[in-house]
Automatic annotation (TrEMBL):
Residues 621-645 have a biased composition (Acidic residues). It comes from Cellulosimicrobium sp. ES-005. Residues 615-645 are annotated as: Disordered. Pfam families: GmrSD_N (PF03235). Transmembrane segments: none annotated. This is DUF262 domain-containing protein. InterPro entries: GmrSD_N (IPR004919). It comes from the Bacteria.
Length: 645
């Protein structure tokens, strides 16, 4: 087996993918990168940073023959151009997701079939703001922008247009170029039009941007290279299998915690002062003891802790710059790479305060009926929340202040705003939320934080929330628990005291088996609208029976008066009459309306009634299929007779 290590240019790789001379071995999995990951990849190209190595296998060898498959969208592009694909000369063993993303974003229409942070299927195009692209690293991150395929950015569930980049004229006026222009030869013409689009008063400045962008962006991006390992055609099948296995195991790499461990260990001032090296891992062990005392914090990572420290340290830097009257204060940051800029002095200042705040964060979650990491909507939202506690101190527990923190939290969860890239939101929340929350002490309105303002929820999202993989699903489960539901078989409120004793989980109200046998619409019966917290044994005891049957059985088993049982059912936001009649339509309408009220109360605003308006935006078919949650009622009740009787 021989190999080479070429560095092909990105534009050549994209061209070969489009022609079909580079294809995939058919055993490769499907393309699955999300919108934010694609955008970040394009930021990497814009900055000229490395993106890792590709691995290619030359075809035509006698030892190996894999069925080739074109990268996704290549077949459609070839059909649209009425051309056949070439015979593949190379197969891509490693780098499929990166090269597919780059091909789709940079070639042809530039339209990428991807998904958003909620795993909703979307079609996007990518643009670059020519002026931001010439700025700082943070500006360059903001310069790469993802828009819907028609180039029109909307909000308020597509009812309001934020900006329209659907036409060439609008693009040059705004100074926002399609990324495809950097590779299809149209960049120069686009920049000439941009230069004159702002009128006479703008022409001098825009001319300077033209020259600068051409030199610092267009030329370097067009010359961008990706290192590769090219295995020759004499490579055996066994060697390919070994290599493929190795590259897909994603070998170990140092994360920022390990890098900072090395940096801090070499801190000369600390050694001179104490006579020892600082051991970051030993310090993390102290934090681990604290966070592991709480199930809900058990998944908190070393890097999460470092981001909390970084947010506080960078906020202190910014405040010092403002106090000193600096024209450009340093920014507040939660970016992972910026962690490496932390000094040991800053770490020692803030780490103990963050560690001391972690029990408060755990109490905050459990007070919202989030008891375990399994049902914690976003681990990452603990990062700014803990920082808020450090900044607010005891004020964080003042009734009105805490009410605003709860509203911020539910806006993040139900608005699903912590699903994607969170680092920018970390910084913005740390800057905005504490002052807004503290203003409640004096009854002031304060400036609404962006997370609170951005939060939106569509009525149809209740239908597409089907499994605990979605943060909003977990959030609604916690909010159901907050309504004070009483178990149907045991006279116990499902609160903090009984949650673990009862082994409470979320279960179907109209059981899965009954719904399937009755031919009901799975989009609705499997949604969160048809689910409620129940003790495990109670749920098993209900079996897969019709609600009309199990309600009658409950009444007899518990010797309850009908009105008393109705009261128990109502604690679950259920219409007792509809349940007794097994009237799924009436039940579903009533409970959907009840959950709408719960969401609106939590986020402090009206939701979008897209179902009522007849134009649903978030139905299940817009999302990827996911395995159903396992429901104990689907198991064989005979296996549990001794336990549930």
């Amino acid at each position: 087996m021989g190999f080479e290590t070429p560095e092909p240019e990105l534009k050549e790789l994209v061209k070969k993918a489009g022609l079909g001379t580079i294809q995939l071995p058919d055993f490769q999995r499907s393309y699955r990168w999300d919108d934010e990951r694609i955008r970040e990849l394009l930021v990497t190209v814009l900055r000229g940073h490395p993106m890792g190595v590709l691995m290619l296998l030359v075809t035509g060898g006698e030892h190996v023959h894999f069925q080739p498959r074109a990268l996704e969208r290549v077949d459609q592009d070839a059909a649209a151009d009425k051309r056949d694909l070439a015979v593949p000369e190379e197969l891509l063993l490693d780098g499929q997701q990166r090269l597919t993303s780059l091909y789709q974003a940079l070639a042809g229409s530039g339209v990428v079939d991807t998904r958003d942070a909620k795993k909703k299927q979307i079609r996007r195009r990518y643009f670059v703001d020519v002026e931001l692209a010439l700025g700082s690293a943070e500006d360059q991150n903001d310069a790469v922008q993802s828009l819907p395929e028609d180039g029109i950015e909307r909000r308020n569930f597509d009812r309001d247009v934020v900006r329209d980049l659907s036409t060439f004229e609008n693009q040059v006026a705004a100074g926002v170029m399609p990324f495809t222009a950097l590779f299809d030869g149209s960049a120069t013409g686009w920049l000439i039009a941009y230069m004159t689009a702002g009128g006479q008063e703008e022409q001098t400045r825009r001319t300077a941007v033209f020259a600068d962008f051409n030199a610092r962006v267009v030329n370097p991006v067009q010359a961008y290279k990706i290192p590769a390992i090219r295995l020759d055609k004499n490579t055996t099948k066994e060697a390919v299998a070994t290599v493929f296995n190795k590259v897909n195991q994603g070998g170990l790499r140092l994360d920022n915690f390990e890098l900072l461990t090395a940096i801090f260990a070499g801190d000369r001032k600390h050694f001179q002062r104490t006579g020892t090296d600082f051991r970051l891992r030993d310090d993390w062990d102290e934090t681990r003891k604290v966070k592991d005392s709480w199930s809900v914090l058990s998944q908190l990572k070393e890097t999460d802790f470092l981001q909390m420290v970084l947010l506080l340290a960078s906020l202190a830097r910014r405040d010092a710059d403002v106090a000193a009257g600096k024209e450009r204060p340093r920014r507040v940051t939660g970016r992972g790479d910026d962690v490496l800029d932390l000094t040991l002095e800053e770490y020692l200042t803030w780490a103990p305060r963050v560690r001391d705040a972690l029990p408060w964060t755990a109490h905050f979650f459990t007070s919202l009926h989030i008891h375990t990491d399994e049902f914690l909507p976003y681990r990452t939202q603990a990062v700014p929340l803990t920082v808020f506690r450090v900044l607010l101190g005891d004020d964080a527990d003042v009734h009105t202040v805490r009410a605003r923190l709860r509203r911020w939290y539910w806006c993040g969860v139900l608005g699903e705003l912590y699903s994607g890239s969170t680092e920018t939101r970390f910084a913005r929340d740390v800057e905005q939320v504490p002052a807004w929350a503290r203003a409640a002490k004096t009854g002031e309105e304060g400036a609404t934080p962006k997370t609170v303002a951005d939060a939106q929820f569509a009525e149809s999202r209740l239908w597409s929330l089907q499994t605990r993989n979605a943060a909003a699903y977990k959030g609604l489960y916690a909010l159901m628990l907050a309504q004070g539901p009483v178990d149907w078989k045991r006279d116990l409120l499902m609160d903090h005291a009984a949650y673990f004793d009862l082994n409470v989980d979320i279960h179907h109200i109209f059981p899965k088996k009954y719904c399937e046998d009755a031919g009901l619409d799975k989009a609705r019966w499997n949604s969160v609208v048809n689910k409620t917290p129940l003790a495990q044994k109670t749920n098993i005891w209900l079996r897969g029976d019709s609600p009309a049957v199990y309600v009658e059985r409950l009444q007899k088993d518990q010797s309850l008066a009908p009105e008393k049982l109705d009261e128990l059912l109502a604690t679950h936001l259920v219409d007792p009459a509809a349940l007794r009649a097994a009237d799924f339509e009436a039940f579903f309408r009533a409970r959907q309306e009840a959950l709408v009220g719960v969401v609106e109360q939590a986020i402090g605003k009206r939701i979008f009634r897209d179902l009522s308006e007849g134009r649903p935006t978030d139905l299940p078919e817009a999302y990827e299929n996911e395995p159903d949650d396992i429901d104990d009622a689907d198991l064989d009740v005979e296996d549990y007779e001794g336990e549930v009787a």
